[in-house]
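Q: I have two molecules that I believe assemble together. Could you output structure tokens for the complex as a whole instead of separate predictions?
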Amino acid sequence: QSVLTQPPSASGTPGQRVTISCFGSSSNIGTEGVNWYQQLPGTAAPKLLIYNNNQRPSGVPDRFSGSKSGTSASLAISGLRSEDEADYYCAAWDNNLDGILFGGGTKVTV
Amino acid sequence: EVRLVESGGGLVQPGGSLRLSCAVSGFTFSDYYIDWVRRAPGKGLEWVGRSRDKARDFSTDYAASVKGRFTVSRDYSRNSFYLQMTSLKIEDSAMYYCTRTDRNIRKDFDYWGQGTLVTVS
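A: Yes, here they are, computed for all two components at once.
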């Protein structure tokens, strides 16, 4: 079954570390790179946070980190700040669907 | 500076058609993929379709939910990409974004437009 599963919500206090999981399968995370996106509340467009499992684009703080193991991936936010309140999505290509899958999104509350 | 600017959204009746445009600048048109991603009200992000780069013959792929109804294309002369949407359904109502992908380094969706709103009602 081709889905990426994320917890619907996560929370923490300022300064804490929060981890968001993304569970997939051999047809997606197991064989393809995982990307993470942040979408702030309102009408802002999503922003790339992590690409190819653990690479940070320039300008993304090193408080954000990604990892992958087998068919699951994680996004960690350390030193949590109020401006980190947003929806976070994992995504990966799926070889069964021949398309990109997004996780359902995780709303982070600080 | 890399820029993507969408236009063409609006209100359309079920069964109708609409063409979205994405004007790009600041990068070499043929070296990147362009994807369309949408977010319906109260829902998460959903990938819609893709136009690959010149090295991959500008091939296309679509989500199952839009296959046969939506078509992505590009126009060199206008540095623009298009999403032609036909047989629109109420569930196609969403903010539509065009995004850029550098598949050579597996950097998907590194730049996004501001989005254009489509309402099917």
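A: One point stands out. The mean pLDDT of chain B is 95.
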